[in-house]
Design a protein that fits this description.
The complex is a heterodimer. In chain A, the strands form three sheets. In chain A, strands 2, 5, 6, 9, 10 and 11 form a six-stranded mixed beta sheet that branches. Chain A is built from no helices and eleven strands. Chain A is mostly beta strands. By secondary structure, chain B is mainly β. In chain B, the strands form two sheets. In chain B, strands 2, 4, 5, 6, 9, 10 and 11 form a seven-stranded mixed beta sheet that branches. A four-stranded antiparallel beta sheet of chain B has the order 1-3-8-7, with no helix packed on it. Classes of the chains: A mainly beta, B mainly beta. Chain A binds chain B through residues 32, 36, 42-46, 49, 86, 90, 92-102, and chain B through 3-4, 31, 33, 35, 41-45, 48, 55-56, 58, 91, 95, 98-108.
């Protein structure tokens, strides 16, 4: 079975400070990992996926298969980063997403 | 940019009533999904749909749920006899292809069963 764990429900940081959102997963095969973001009153949007290895809005995430983690990082948080962030897993040959519980990020001025 | 649209945004219904939630997926997408999120809980997969049939469903998706693509644009989720525990945000989503593709979500339909 697939499981995604986001241990922090809330992260509160000051503008300009680094932010790291933790995501751990359990899956016996080769997963695809994603971060979705939901800004206030908006839809879930894909932020980034591990196979792209790109940086979106200053965020990066590295898949660590040894630690089964896919933590999301940004060196300098901005107020507009305040949102709900969801880590999600999809098995390589599938199309169903398994979500973590989400982390609310609050960036204070 | 094309978007998945959902109606209604909010519906209140009495326990035991039938509810239909509607979705218009992105036009060139072939795979359609419903997810739900009970307040304070995780976003959970309900069902995926391709080529006019269910391709995968979760344990949550029991006989009281059904999905349909009644015409070329709409994708619906029907709950036959709603229960209090069906109160949740229901998200429709679509993707162009199977696996490896981005899944795009609608804004959600908030269902309250009283």
């Amino acid at each position: 079975a697939q499981r995604v764990t986001q241990p922090e429900k809330l992260l509160s940081v000051f503008k300009g400070a680094p932010v790291e959102l933790k995501c751990n997963y359990s899956y016996s095969g080769s997963p695809e990992l994603f971060w979705y973001v939901q800004y206030s009153r908006q839809r879930l949007q894909l932020l980034l996926r591990h196979i792209s290895r790109e940086s979106i809005k200053g965020f990066t995430a590295d898949l660590n298969k040894g630690e089964t983690s896919f933590h999301l990082k940004k060196p300098f948080a901005q107020e507009e980063d305040s949102a709900m962030y969801y880590c999600a897993l999809r098995r390589a040959a599938g199309n169903k997403l398994t979500f973590g519980g989400g982390t609310r990020v609050l960036v204070k001025p | 940019e094309p978007e998945v649209t959902q109606t209604p945004s909010h519906q209140v219904t009495q326990m035991g009533q039938e509810v239909i939630l509607r979705c218009v997926p992105i036009s060139n997408h072939l795979y359609f999904y419903w997810y739900r999120q009970i307040l304070g809980q995780k976003v959970e997969f309900l069902v995926s749909f391709y080529n006019n049939e269910i391709s995968e469903k979760s344990e949550i998706f029991d006989d009281q749920f059904s999905v349909e693509r009644p015409d070329g644009s709409n994708f619906t989720l029907k709950i036959r006899s709603t229960k209090l525990e069906d109160s949740a945000m229901y998200f429709c989503a679509s993707s162009e292809l199977y696996g490896g593709n981005t899944i795009y979500f609608g804004e959600g339909s908030w269902l309250t069963v009283v």
